[in-house]
């Protein structure tokens, strides 16, 4: 791991928008971000700038897990295996993206729950469907869904949910692994990139 002093200089350059220092491991970056005594939004701004250079979904995954330690991650291949088995009946999958993102494509069986959904409205709609279910939330990369889980997790468990998970790397990781996404018209290779910046993390499929 790089020394704290080296990383301190690195982040000073990040904040001043200077040249990127090569050879920095994403694990070092996340470790130091976690330790820095600064506002969370400032950390996110640093992460955004870094991604322009690293183009690393792994960095985002690590950042999300460190920023939301109470949120349990679920690997994409584990969810896919569950969806192909009899366990599908016990799953409830929630897509925490804007509805226009959901319309382009989503995981099969996913239910759209836009990130601005009020907690009260979520439970008015789904409280009776949570008992005995494994809940999986996802968004583009896992950040919006982790933030939403932070609002509803305890109440979901109190309502009888067996578990609450955040899909690690979100639909971007799922898509990059070649796993299927669907729209109202069936399977598709389309994916909403969120914006031109985050699109850098998506591995395009041949049309």
Automatic annotation (TrEMBL):
Residues making up the signal peptide according to the UniProt record: none
InterPro entries reported for this sequence: Rhodanese-like_dom, Rhodanese-like_dom_sf
Annotated Gene3D superfamilies: Rhodanese-like domain
Pfam families reported for this sequence: Rhodanese
Rhodanese domain span: 87-183
Name of the featured protein: Rhodanese domain protein
Species name: Chloroherpeton thalassium (strain ATCC 35110 / GB-78)
Lineage of source species: Bacteria, Pseudomonadati, Chlorobiota, Chlorobiia, Chlorobiales
């Amino acid at each position: 791991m790089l020394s704290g002093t080296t990383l301190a200089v690195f982040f000073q350059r990040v904040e001043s928008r200077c040249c990127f220092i090569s050879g920095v491991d994403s694990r070092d970056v996340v470790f130091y971000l976690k330790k820095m005594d600064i506002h969370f939004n400032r950390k996110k701004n640093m992460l955004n700038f870094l991604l322009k250079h690293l183009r690393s979904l792994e960095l985002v995954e690590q950042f999300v897990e460190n920023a939301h330690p109470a949120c349990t991650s679920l690997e994409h291949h584990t969810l896919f295996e569950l969806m192909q088995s009899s366990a599908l009946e016990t799953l409830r999958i929630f897509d925490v993206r804007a509805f226009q993102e959901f319309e382009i494509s989503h995981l099969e069986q996913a239910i759209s729950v836009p990130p601005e959904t009020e907690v009260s409205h979520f439970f008015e709609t789904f409280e009776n469907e949570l008992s005995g279910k494994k809940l999986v939330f996802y968004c583009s990369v896992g950040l919006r869904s982790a933030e939403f889980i932070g609002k509803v997790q305890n109440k979901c468990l109190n309502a009888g949910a067996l578990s609450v998970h955040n899909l690690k790397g979100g639909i971007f990781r799922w898509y990059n692994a070649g796993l299927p996404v669907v729209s109202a018209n069936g399977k598709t290779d389309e994916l909403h990139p969120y914006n031109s910046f985050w699109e850098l993390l998506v591995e395009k499929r041949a049309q």
